[in-house]
Amino acid sequence: MDINIDEMTSKLTKLLADHKSLSDDTILVKSELTARRSELKRAMDEVKELGYNPNDLASEIRREAEVFQLKISNFESELGDVRRIVDPMVKEIRSA
Predict the structure, then answer these.
(1) Which of 10, 36, 54, 67 is within CB 3.0–4.6 Å of 47 for a Cys-Cys bond?
(2) Same structural domain for residues 69 and 29?
(3) Which range marks the domain in which residue 92 is found?
């Protein structure tokens, strides 16, 4: 087995550089993960402050949609009631 010190030194230098690069990349990934976790926590806290459960947004959206539909139906019904009262008055005014 031939041992070439220059080749081994070169390989070790490349491996150490790769190790340093991976170490730097790991630090970058950890830093980004920390930042994203912080942003996620901020967003979840904001959602909680609005009175919603951030862990079950689908049911929160469904509930809000049902409330919205109910309010739309009530509004439509109230408009119909007003229309039934106002229409005869408008008809009388126009025919006078």
Answers:
(1) 54
(2) no
(3) 55-96
Give CA–CA dist 41/33, Å, rounded: 12
Structurally, the chain folds into a number of domains equal to: 2
Tell me the pLDDT tens digit for each residue of 27-67: 999 999 999 999 999 999 999 999 999 999 999 999 999 99
Is residue 37 located within the same domain as residue 15?
yes
Q: What is the DSSP string of 31-83?
A: HHHHHHHHHHHHHHHHHHHTT--GGGHHHHHHHHHHHHHHHHHHHHHHHHHHH
14 and 44 fall within a common domain? yes
Total-model pTM:
0.57
Mean pLDDT, to the nearest integer, of 62-81?
Answer: 96
